[in-house]
Design goal:
single chain; alpha+beta; Nuclear Transport Factor 2, Chain: A; 2 domains; six-stranded mixed β-sheet; four-stranded antiparallel β-sheet; 7 helices; about 40% strand; NTF2-like_dom_sf
């Protein structure tokens, strides 16, 4: 089977469908043998196909633990905000994720999702997922002193320690640190400099003029933004040097 626009979109759509149905095996089967999940970007990536010290085997045990930690206990819904973009073997989705935790506690996170596919064992599979969302605002929605929120917090903490260990739990919490608002301002200046004719900025943007930056998200060393290119919906991914907040790489995905 070759990777066509339709098969790539079907692959990207199958992931949230399996999550909504709580079909763990269907979700695991979407991934290539070697894969990486960055969810959130800025946290500890989940690597598959490498030696896993916990299970003692190579395979998808880390991905299965990710499912049990973050997906299995919750009701997760994807709300699509703008059309999906297919670029080569990549699919970009502009969504808001609604997570209903136990005790009727709900949190929403604006997100840009990048699915990178490959052909594995004769079929398109997910090689990488990069979920760009901001951890701090999500934490703020579930933090509090109400009995329901306290139960949710305690349950999440215990589950993360059991399945991810202390290191993994600390790494997830550390994802709250990102380039933040200063990084967003740096990307705005970068886009403006490209529009003013800055050659290096234009080169990184593929010669495209990017306008109307909205829904900017800072995750790890990356700022993503919904934007417009030649009147079409697009999503900008800008990668920054965390020491001086220079944009060192960028990629624009443009809709049809």
């Amino acid at each position: 089977m070759t990777a066509t626009t339709d098969t790539l979109l079907a692959l990207a759509h199958a992931s949230p469908a399996a999550v909504a149905a709580h079909d763990k095996q269907a979700w695991l089967d979407l991934f290539a043998y070697r894969h990486v999940v960055e969810d959130p970007v800025g946290g500890r990536p989940v690597h598959g196909g490498l030696n896993d010290r916990r299970s003692g085997e190579r395979g998808n045990a880390p991905l299965a633990r990710f499912w049990e930690t973050f997906i299995a206990p919750n009701d997760i819904r994807f709300h699509v905000e703008r059309e999906d973009i297919v670029d080569g073997l990549n699919v970009v989705r502009d969504v808001t994720i609604e997570t209903r935790l136990s005790g009727d506690v709900t949190a929403k996170a604006p997100m840009h999702l990048l699915y990178e596919a490959t052909v594995d064992d004769g079929a398109p599979r997910i090689r990488r997922i990069a979920a760009h969302w901001e951890v701090g605002p999500m934490f703020a929605q579930v933090a509090g002193v109400s009995p329901a929120k306290l139960r949710v917090g305690a349950g999440m903490g215990a589950r993360m320690l059991r399945l991810q260990g202390l290191g993994g739990s600390l790494a997830f919490g550390a994802a709250v640190r990102s380039v933040g608002a200063p990084g967003k301002r740096a990307v705005q200046r970068f886009v403006e400099s490209a529009a003013s004719g800055n050659g290096e900025a234009l080169r990184m943007l593929g010669g495209r003029t990017v306008t109307d930056l909205t829904k900017t998200i800072a995750a790890g060393d990356t700022v993503t933004a919904s934007c417009t290119v030649d009147g079409r919906h697009a999503v900008l991914f800008a990668y920054l040097n965390r020491k001086d907040l220079r944009v060192i790489d960028a990629r624009v995905y443009v809709g049809g």
